[in-house]
Amino acid sequence: MPTYDYLCTACSHRFEAVQSIKDDALTTCPQCGGTLRKVFGLPGIVLKGGGFYKTDNRSGGDSSSSSD
Q1: How far is CA 51 from CA 2, 12, 56, in A?
Q2: Mean local confidence (pLDDT), 10-31
Q3: I want to staple 5 with a disulfide (CB 3.0 to 4.6 A). Which of 17, 18, 39, 67 is the partner?
Q4: Is the pLDDT of residue 60 over 80?
Q5: 47 or 2: whose pLDDT is higher?
Q6: Spatial separation of the C-alpha atoms in residues 22 and 37, rounded to whole Å
Q7: How far apart are CA 7 and CA 17, in angstroms?
Q8: Strand, helix or coil for residue 58
Q9: Nearest-CA neighbor of 4 among 31, 36, 32, 33?
């Protein structure tokens, strides 16, 4: 099950909640009863470096020109 980050707009309490995708988002802060909002972070995977384009791994030939 995914983990979601929440932030209270009233007291700035930040916490994580493990919820099913089908569950409704939490709306009330467990500390002060204020309004919550979901916090979106960075993606879990970042693709860097070569090898992500079809011309990167071709042997021979010039990769700067495309003849497709």
Answers
A1: 30, 42, 5
A2: 93
A3: 39
A4: no
A5: 2
A6: 17
A7: 11
A8: coil
A9: 36
Contacts of 26 (CB under 8 A, 6+ apart): 4, 6, 17, 19, 36
Its pTM stands at: 0.59
Please state, in angstroms and rounded to a whole number, the distance separating the CA atoms of residues 62 and 45. 30
Residue whose pair of structure tokens reads 């995708």 in the numeric block = 21
Pairing of strands 14-18, 36-39: unpaired
Residues in CB range of 60: below 8 A, 6 or more apart:
none
Q: What is the residue extent of each domain of the chain?
A: 3-39
Distance CA 36, CA 29 (A): 6
Give the 3-state secondary structure of residue 2.
Answer: coil
Q: Which residues pair with 17 in a beta bridge?
A: 4
User: Phi then psi for 19, rounded to 5 degrees?
Assistant: -135, 155
